[in-house]
Write a structure and sequence with these properties.
The chain is an alpha+beta fold. Helix content is 45%, strand content 17%.
């Protein structure tokens, strides 16, 4: 059933431009009151430090395999890297009372780089992970113009 649905969507999408399909699939979805969402902006210094750490892990040979040092770091001038923390409000309130940090964190990486869809659309899935794992989920925003780290 799900494979048939995907095929039908791809057939439908083939009649429209990428921008039209992105507009169709990037719909805002309300956040349920039992979910806490905290929007954050990643500071440029942190992005640079992360890029250096990744390059160190890759080594010269790995950097060569991925096509160089900078293409994957490109970001539109003046753009910001934004993300959000998603967790169950109940878990957040319990941690706030005790002052403890969350012991479980999940990094959500969308395999399609949000070519279609958005954090809004995938938040339901992420909040389910947060609830079942009793964790915070970190997910970055993306759009067609911004590149991912």
């Amino acid at each position: 059933m799900s494979l048939r649905l995907i095929r039908r969507f791809l057939l439908y999408a083939s009649n429209y431009t990428v921008e039209e399909v992105q507009a169709f699939t990037s719909r805002w979805v309300p956040i349920p009151r039992w979910v806490k969402v905290e929007e954050v902006t990643i500071p440029p210094q942190q992005i640079s430090e992360s890029a250096e750490a990744i390059q160190h892990q890759f080594g010269e040979r790995g950097i060569e395999k991925v096509g160089g040092r900078t293409w994957w770091q490109w970001r539109e001038e003046g753009s910001q890297l934004k993300a959000e923390w998603i967790e169950m409000r109940r878990h957040y309130n319990e941690r706030s009372k005790t002052g403890e940090d969350c012991k479980r964190v999940m990094l959500y990486v969308h395999g399609g780089a949000y070519f279609f869809g958005s954090v809004d659309e995938h938040r339901y899935q992420m909040q389910r992970h947060a609830r079942k794992l009793q964790a915070r989920v970190f997910a970055r925003y993306a759009n067609a113009l911004a590149s991912a780290l």
